[in-house]
Amino acid sequence: MVPVSFCFFFLLLLLSAGESSSQLVSGPHITDVNILLPPKMKNPVEYRLQGSDGCFKWSWDHHDILSVTPEFNSSSHCSTSARLRSISPYSGRKETAVYATDIQTGMVIRCKVFIDNFSRIQIFHNSIKLDLDGLSMLRVRAFDNEDNEFSSLVGLQFIWKLMPESGGSTHHLAHVPLKESPLTDCGGLCGYLDIQKKLEDSGVFADLFVVKGTKIGHEKVSVHLLEAPLTHIADEIVLTVAEAMSLEPRSPVYVLMGASFGYTLKVMRGNVPQAVDLPSPHHRWSVLNSSVAQVDSLIGLTKALSLGVTTVVVEDTRVAGHIQGSSINVVTPDTLILYISPWSMSGDLITESKPFPSSMHWYVVSGRQYLIQMKIFSGRPDAHEIYITETDDIKLYGKDSDYWKIVSLPDELSSEYGQRNSRILNAISPGLGELTSTLTYFSGHQESKEVLKVVQEIRVCEKVQFTLNSEDDTPKVLLPWTPAVYQEMELIVTGGCAKASSDYKWFTSDISILSVSAYGIIQAKRPGIATVKVVSTFDSQNFDEVIVEVSIPSSMVMLQNFPVETVVGSHLKAAVTMKALNGATFSRCDAFNSLIKWKTGSESFVIVNATSEMMMLDELRSMDSSPPCSRASIYTASTGRTVLQATLAKEFHYFDKSLSESIDLKATLTIGAYLPLSVRQDSDGNHHGGYWFDKAQEETDFGVSKLYLVPGTYVDVMLLGGPERWDDNVEFTETVKTLYEDEEDLTSRVNVHHEVDRRANMYRISCQKLGSYKLVFLRGNLLGIDHPVPAVAEALLSVHCSLPSSVVLIVDEPVNKLDVIRAASQADRAPGRLRVTPVTVANGQIIRVAAVGISEFGEAFSNSSTLSLRWELTSCNNLAYWDDDYNSKMTKSGWERFLALRNESGLCTVRATVSGIDYSFKSQYSTLLPQGSESTLTDAVRLQLVSTLRVTPEFNLVFFNPNAKVNLSMTGGSCLWEAVVNNSRVAEVIRPPSGLQCSQMMLSPKGLGTTIVTVYDIGVSPPLSALALIKVADVDWIKIASGDEISIMEGSTHSIDLLTGIDDGMTFDSSQYSLMDIMVHIEDDLVEHVTVDEDSLSVGEHVATSSFKIAARRLGITTLYVSARQQSGGKVLSQTIKVEVYSPPRLHPQGIFLVPGASYVLTIEGGPTMNVSVDYTTVDNEVAKIEKSGRLYATSPGNTTIYATIYGSEGAVICQAIGNAEVGLPATAMLVAQSDTVAVGHEMPVSPSFPEGDLLSFYELCSAYKWTIEDEKVLIFIASSINVEENAGFVNVVQGRSAGKTRVTIAFSCDFVSPGLYSESRTYEASMILSVVPDLPLSLGAPMTWVLPPFYTSSGLLPSSSEPQKHRDGQSHRGNIVYSILKDCSSRADFERDTISINGGSVKTTDSNNVACIQAKDRTSGRIEIAACVRVAEVAQIRMKSEGIPFHVIDLAVGGELELPINYYDTLGIPFLEAHGVTTYNVETNHRDVVFIKTVNDQPSAYIKGIKHGKALIRVSIGDNLRKSDYVLVSVGAHIFPQNPVIHTGNLLNFSITGADNEVTGQWFTSNRSVISVNVASGQAKAISQGSTHVTFKGHGLKLQTKVTVLFGNTIYVDSPGETLTNVHVPAEGYKFPVKFRENKFAVTEHGNKATFNCQVDPPFIGYTKPWMDLDTGNTYCLFFPYSPEHLVHSMSITKDMKPHVSFSVDASLKEARRVSGSASALLIGGFSVTGPDKLNINPDSNTTIISLVGNTDVQIHCRNKGRLSISLIKRDDFGIAGHAQYKVNVLRSEQFTDRIIITLPATGQIVEIDVCYDTGESLVASSKDGYSVLLKILWGVLVLVVSVIILMKVIDRQVPTGATGTATYSGNAAQGTPERRSGTVIYHEESPRTPSPFMEYVKRTVDETPYYRREGRRRFNPQNTM
User: Fold this and answer.
1) Which interval of the chain is the signal sequence?
2) Which of 628, 587, 625, 588 is nearest to 610 (CA)?
3) Phi/psi of residue 1371, each to 5°?
4) Number of C-beta neighbours around residue 373 at 10 A
5) CA 1200 to chain CA centroid, nearest Å
6) Which of the residues 332, 1555, 1660, 1845 has the least number of beta carbons within 10 Å of its own beta carbon?
7) What's the rounded mean pLDDT across residues 1285-1303?
């Protein structure tokens, strides 16, 4: 153990030592610690002493000889440098010191300053030789007599002179002014150039002098001081000017032995290198070692003689000693390497490409040129390139090849690249070949030579090229992009000798714009232009590039490749493409396929497979169309036209905050559908020997393809369906074509006449001659605008002109139907065409008898009127006769007659025979009818006259129940009948009672199924029969037919209709409902089921009819469903409907006063809310106008009535609310305050008002508020919200200063303007007198006095123990602290009356104006103190005040939420400690469309939420007393987030814009970059140094600003707890967020104790926090208490995008310095709660129940035995952490059991178990036995517990004295004397307020001022363990 401890201690020492050393290194610094300055002179000398890493305060010793001027940075808060200047004349050498004190760390740095006179000066320079046209900087330095250099000469005046050395007049140097020189002083940080330039401008010189070389030679430079009496001090130097020389080739030069080459000499003239022509008269050449090389002295020609190193020197003879040299190395070669580089067609080397050596594979591109260089190297491993001369033997082979050609360099480039060692390769075609190069050289002796050889393989490849789909192959790709949509496109590339996709490398110039995969698939990332580059892996120079532009789609158009109309029942194809802003079409855009939404304006056109029509893509490509972005197939269900619309809508700011745009593209196309073109017969042949058709039936149900006409007749036909005329821009065609076989003119045989005058689609077809013809009708639209494909339909019609081959008679039919004609023509006939089977008809009526012509094919003629008929009756004398009168009235044709039947039975024969041609056609068609045709053109039928039997109803649906009965009625026939059922297992016939045998028949159901009841009338011959269908079924469904949502006014009733039926849709008769056991099930008692006869309560009563009534009892929304019992015992349930009970609607406000030009948003309180709409109207629009949103605009003075009408979903009026509005001009104004008095030091808001209204009525129209106070010694304005520009000065706050009365006055002007209707301006002035009540002369108890309302019981304000809660003894219910009320014992009445009393930890009050003090006694120590005093007062004032709302103005972002705390004050403006539920308050605003207000019962806060941009005034008042009101102006709009942050140095903070309508773009700025820096584009800020500054955002029409405070270091640290945070099963002490402090001036008080701090949670709606300190450990925490799920459901603003978890932060800040703060973030996972009992008791009468959950509904629910219970979700409102769900529990088995339902939340592990008990009532004995056993177990457990408690109490009593002995002493330095605490039990209320800070200050001050009070062993603590 000891070694471990020693190691640990040693480690701590090392760490502390490391920290100390790091602090020494990182402290503040200054630039100099010793400074030498001259004394005061005519021109003062200044020196800047620069500091760093600190903020300094400057001081110095001798203020008479030295002046120190601090310099501050741009924020003027910190000094980092100071200017030093001597201020005393010279009187000997002096010494002083300057001290730089870092105000942050307190570190002091001392700088010694010496002041002495000059002894000498000296010119300092870097070189005495300078180049021609070059610059040189000369500087004067001064020294004292000890040769110490002076620190600065800036400010002194000097005289500089230039003089040729030889004494001539030609100067070799020229002076360059400082302002024209390139010198800088770094902005004053590295020099004093500004002062030196000013000296030169004034005509003298400074200590700095710049010269320029102008001519080769020597120049004298002299300087002397221009300061009396030191003008004799001077200095002089000589400078040399020469030309700068350079040699080529550059030194060092490596050559082979025997090489010969010449140098090129260049000189700098005018800063431009120029070659010198050799030989030159001014230059001579020489070599240092002539055995290695020799050089020509005039022209510089050099030859290498032997291996070695030497130097060639060239000298300028004009300047002595001016030479330039070049090193020559004569070497032997080691390697020969070939290099290849791309060569441009213009003859230039592509410099950005790197040459490839022969050690690599060479790949070249066909069609390109390359530079091949042969290079020789020597000296491994540090190889040096050898300079190749003309004498070197180097060769290149392989010049001629099928794949390339090699040529020499042009002459003008040979000098640059080398004629001998460079070639140009022209690649011709792909292939593989070789190049060979050799070098022959001397190996060291002139006699022997050696050869170097290199062979290089070259492959010629095709150029890498993109293959684009565009027609011109323009190397540009255009891709669309929107957030979260990344369009992809595969790029096709060829060339590069590639064999696989891996032989290419892909690059993109900007990966943030475009990404590219290894397979060439590009993906758009954001808008912009990027270049995609594909490179061959073999040759990096073989590449291709394509420009890819990514842009946001600007428009969307339909592709014009498909028909726009088609036949009903088929499909239309459509496709869209998108275009960029410039109109260019995107190369590919199919990634938007799923985002583009298709819809039509009609339900007749159905979108099918809008995103998967891939076949259409191939069709579009084959059409050479633009690439489609989305495709759709539209099914045409019915005719008509509609607009097909494709939309692409997307918001940007949800994905990227930097984007402010949104995309909303639409493309429309008119499409249509038409019925198939058909021909319909329009003229009726019913009266003319033809068939009948129903003109009234649907046009699509009847068409004709064949017509049979007798010559001379006609028929009208109509074209049905087909395309309608599209529009005027599209040609419409409608024609008829005739097809025939022979060449005869058709017009003589059949005539088609278009009936234009009647209807455009009507044709008359007349038959002229015999024959068969075919007509083709064409109708449709051709090509045109918006009609790209023709749509022409056709219909065929065959016309047969012939004579009938037979005729048939139609008997007792109102018309000649085709089916009747067909049946009659196919009937059996006897000779003479007499129909064998008689036709039975009922007697006693007039029947119609008609004849129809039949063709040889058995088809009925359409018209046979050319032929005439003869009618005959046989054996009908007593039975029937022709009714000529009736016949003449009903018809004029001979092809139909009317026969009157007598009331007799028997047989009668009717015959019709064609007798010839009608007289009107005889002249033209007399020869049509052949001779002898009468024998075939005849028909006869026998009529059987009888009475008819009928059974009604013919169908009956019967509920399967033994008690059900079916009654059938019979009419006609005789009374002798027999009934037979074909399935006796379904139903049986019951004989009716006596007297009803002839008219009724009864059936009873026996089983499920269908049966036919046949009734035979045996009284007629032959017997007649009638049929009825009976279906016996069980009920399959029951439905509420009154709708799924019903709204009922409170107190009224509503009737609900029912339907029952079976699966095929048939319904039961209401008479059978009583057999179905129909029950009504209502969720709760909001509504009740009442009987039809009376409004008595009958919940759960059976319904025996098809409707029932419900009565509305309470407000709210509930659900209702009905059930019916099947014969099998099962139940069928109807749909669940919502029933809303609403209160009578009321217009809010019901009466309102406004001034002209003002507006107010009215709302409806009460009324229905489900599927309703509200329409607002005013009676007089000249007085006020109102919008649909309810916004009322006052226009001109007057009165009007406002109606708010509520409509249902079908447009029916449900209810109406009425209000009134008065518009007027107030004559006077008044000033309003909530009280006439205010206490000294307290505040009260005041505002103007009118007698007829308040601020809500006029504040928007008034401005120029001017507030004055008559006597500012009595009152002052402390926090004015006046802002003239924003017209927000209507509220001010006054504070009492001293006793007295004074007048407060306001003046303002109002512009009552209603555009175009009313305009007037007025000025108002109002005042009031306020009294200021002074404090009492002695009121030390005022700060510790709690103000409470009368007759009030507070929360647990009085803690009963001083111990932390976790240390309290859980077994003791007695606290350590005892409280009592101090009373006046002299008055017995006052003593006995408890005006203020204590109840547990609460304080109870009675009457007002009572004061009492509470005494606290610690029973363990015996200490007695005054805990607090209580004053009882009436609530007189109300405020919306908090630290976040100091000036009655709030800035709120759109969607942002804020809690407005509501506080109460007495008549003097003193706040109440508590006043929960004492009075009611009302919160109102004039613009509810701008802000949403929500108040929660029993919570002293109002919650507001920004809805849209604008301003709204919020008023809070006590009840309806408008004088007791406070106002807050809310401005909803865009804001910088976060607002007014406080961060610490070195930290980062991301600013953003919230609450904007659209995503905004702009730039960020900071007003002080030394405090904080901010990224201009992103808004990311970094804290640099301590201070305050402003961050500004500037966008399009938007400028926002916020203040930023930067603190030095983190002073408060807040950590998050490690456990999972949820709002269910919260620890009793809450969740602990540890708070740690850094020991600095912000966090430590003068006595060393931790300062108090505040805690706050954001967002506030999820819970609350309070600070807490553990007195044992000294640790501090923010305790977080989340609200329960029930609280969140009722208090939160519900939105659909809420999640089951909420991210929140806990902030801690110092009370003394709120800027010093810290925060920690955490995640709260919502839990759930089950509303209702924890045990479900179910019985057979109600075998279902509902389980309701609130909170997080992402739960798993199951039971142990799934065979007994079924659990199903019936409703779920998924609102995240505040959701709501309902589950239905059904019992599946009718047997007694118990089970358990388990509900689990996987996110938190929360489990809730619910016991289920199903009791059938069958067994009571067993349950009683079980109950006895359980009771015995409980009694036994209680007995054991009681005995254990008794034993434990005795043990505790014995231990108490021991612990109490140590409670009397306190020792500050001995831990052994610390007493053992006795714990008491304290229950803290969750909303217990803190002890007021004034009271705590009073306690501290009392302790500090108490004489002889020992503080050593005491520590201050809060009795409530709170800060």
Assistant:
1) 1-22
2) 628
3) -85, -15
4) 18
5) 43
6) 1845
7) 82
1661: helix, strand or coil: helix
CA dihedral 1068, 1069, 1071, 1073 (to 10 degrees): 30
Q: Give the angle subtended at the CA of 1014 by the CAs of 1011 and 1015, to the nearest 5°.
A: 145
pLDDT of residue 1199: 93
Cα 1359 to Cα 1671: distance, rounded to the nearest angstrom: 15
Q: Are 1688 and 1664 in contact (CB under 8 A)?
A: no
What stretch of H or E contains 98? strand 94-102
Query: What band does 926 get if pLDDT is binned at 50, 70 and 90?
Result: low
**For the chain, what percent of residues have pLDDT higher than 70?**
83
Two structure tokens written together for 11 = 């480690």
CA 278 to chain centroid, in Å, comes to 80
| CA nearest to 1492, candidates 1149, 1778, 1163 | 1163
The residue type of 1243 is E
Greater pLDDT, 536 or 1842? 536
- As a whole number of angstroms, the distance between CA 1056 and CA 1767 comes to 29
User: 73, 80 in Cβ contact below 8 A?
Assistant: yes
CA 1300 to chain centre: 58
| Among candidate residues 1873, 1879, 1882, the one with its CA nearest the CA of residue 1852 | 1879
pLDDT score recorded for residue 1096: 44
Is the CB of residue 456 less than 8 Å from the CB of residue 438?
no
Q: Cα–Cα distances in Å, from 606 out to 570, 871, 942?
A: 11, 58, 56
User: Please, what is the average pLDDT of the chain?
Assistant: 81
Sorted by sequence, the CB contacts under 8 Å of residue 595 that are 6+ apart come out as 482, 485, 648, 650
For the stretch 1191-1210, pLDDT in tens is 999 999 999 999 999 998 87
Is 596 in contact with 577 (CB distance < 8 Å)?
no
For the chain, the C-alpha Rg in angstroms (whole number) is 55
Tell me phi and psi for residue 1365, to 5 degrees.
-65, -35
The Cα 912–Cα 454 span in angstroms is 122
Q: Which tokens belong to 1096?
A: 């008595």
Comparing CA positions, the residue from 728, 730, 718, 733 lying closest to residue 780 is 733
- pLDDT score of 1761: 79
Q: pLDDT of 1737-1756, one tens digit each?
A: 888 777 788 888 889 888 88
Single-letter residue type at 697? Q
Q: Which residues neighbour 458 within 8 Å (Cβ) at sequence distance 6 or greater?
A: 362, 363, 364, 403, 404, 425, 432, 433, 434, 435
Question: Which one-letter DSSP state was computed for residue 889?
Answer: H
Global model pTM greater than 0.90: no
Residue 1221 tokens, joined: 């509005």
| Beta carbons of 954 and 1013 less than 8 angstroms apart | no
Residue from 1280, 1283, 1290 nearest 1231 by CA? 1290
Token couple for 1297: 């200063």
Taking the CA of residue 1197 as centre, how many other CA atoms within 13 Å lie in the half-sphere pointing to its CB?
8
d(CA 580, CA 576) in angstroms, rounded, equals 14
For tokens 């089951």, the residue is: 1700
**Of 1628, 1604, 1632, the residue nearest 1618 (C-alpha):** 1632
pLDDT digit string (tens) for 798-824?
Answer: 889 888 989 999 988 889 888 889 999
Integer CA distances (angstroms), 1722 to 38, 1258, 1659, 1702, in order: 65, 46, 12, 9
- CA angle 557-558-560, nearest 5°? 130
Where b means 16+ CB within 10 Å and e means fewer, 607-620 reads beebbebeebbebb
Tokens of 1435: 């609530």
- What is the three-class DSSP state of 1828? helix
CA gap 1464, 1518 in Å, rounded:
9
- β-strands 1701-1710, 521-524 pairing: unpaired
**In Å, how far from its chain's centre is CA 67?**
63
Cα dihedral 1257→1260→1265→1267 (10° resolution): 50
